[in-house]
Write a structure and sequence with these properties.
The protein is an alpha/beta fold and about 300 residues long. Helix content is about 25%, strand content about 25%. The two termini are about 20 Å apart.
């Protein structure tokens, strides 16, 4: 059975707190697992969340600040210790290659698994599989940073009433799907477009074109909201977003489910992030993330 869900491993910005671990997010997409921004403590959070090294197929790092990457050393060594039977691909800004190398080989261990390094240095597609295309867009932060977007190919939804009206039934349904037409009846006559699902992961950034491009039309958007709106000037200075800014992006981009995360330790009331997001006009499904939360990708429209 296919599963599409986000497993939140950590939600703190800069430093962990008593209640929030450093960043870490696993997207389960059918039979694959994509780990985003493994901060310090990610390996332990994976254990607590029931996530195994065998679940990982890709690792995507937005940038090389510690709260988004210090967990790489432990995760990569665990992949090797557990002898994961498939190759794992790592995406990260090419400008941070020296940091990736240091983290990958932080200590001595036996390499048993091939890690494919696929650094990012421009906007555009990074990988295409049968189930999705993975894309990157540059963000605006004091160090080079990229956000990631996963897009499922569009498909066709068969319509029982139209199939019946055209007398298409049984094995012929499969034939018309494969061949595109049957006895003068086209696939378009008996089906409609099924829009592929979209997911985006946006971490440390100011508002910029990349943020909007990543968020456009997403079913599930995970986005940082380090600051509350009253501290917008701090957000701009340090290269971050506020809750209201993130919500307005989601509103304007038509996002169905918004997940706010990466919270500054200066705030003690997480409900205020939701209040400010709603005040900004976002009316879709909204989650203020906490550690070990599971968020399903919304069902198709």
């Amino acid at each position: 059975m296919s599963v599409r869900e986000l497993v939140v491993l950590g939600t703190a910005s800069q430093v962990p707190t008593r209640h929030r671990n450093h960043n870490g997010y696993l997207l389960r997409w059918d039979g694959e697992g994509i780990l985003f921004d493994p901060g310090e403590g990610t390996q332990r959070q994976m254990l607590r969340a029931g996530v195994a090294a065998h679940d990982l197929n890709r690792i995507c790092v937005t940038h090389f600040h510690g709260d988004h990457s210090l967990g790489l050393a432990g995760v990569i060594q665990r992949i090797n210790l557990d002898r994961v039977p498939h190759r794992v691909t790592a995406h990260y800004p090419r400008s941070g290659q020296r940091f990736f190398d240091r983290l990958r080989y932080a200590t001595a261990y036996r390499e048993t698994v091939g890690i494919t390094e696929a650094p990012v240095d421009a906007d555009g597609p990074l990988a295409r599989t049968g189930g999705y295309t993975l894309e990157a867009r540059k963000l605006s932060h004091p160090v080079e940073s990229y956000g990631y977007r996963l897009v499922e190919p569009d498909g066709r939804r068969m319509l029982p009433d139209r199939l019946a009206a055209h007398g298409v039934k049984g094995p012929d349904v499969g034939r018309i799907q494969r061949e595109g037409s049957l006895g003068g009846v086209t696939l378009e006559n008996v089906s409609e477009l099924r829009r592929g699902q979209r997911f985006a992961f946006v971490m440390d950034t100011r508002l910029c074109d990349g943020v909007y491009a990543l968020a456009e039309g997403c079913d599930l958007l995970v986005i940082e909201s380090t600051f509350l709106d009253e501290d917008e000037q701090l957000a701009v200075e340090h290269g971050h977003l506020t809750a209201g800014q993130a919500a307005r992006v989601a509103r304007d981009a038509g996002v169905r489910h918004l997940v706010l995360t990466h919270f500054s330790q200066r705030y003690t009331d997480p409900d205020e992030f939701e209040r400010q997001a709603r005040a900004a006009g976002y009316e879709g499904e909204l989650t203020v993330a906490h550690d070990l939360l599971r968020v399903p990708v919304p069902k198709r429209r």
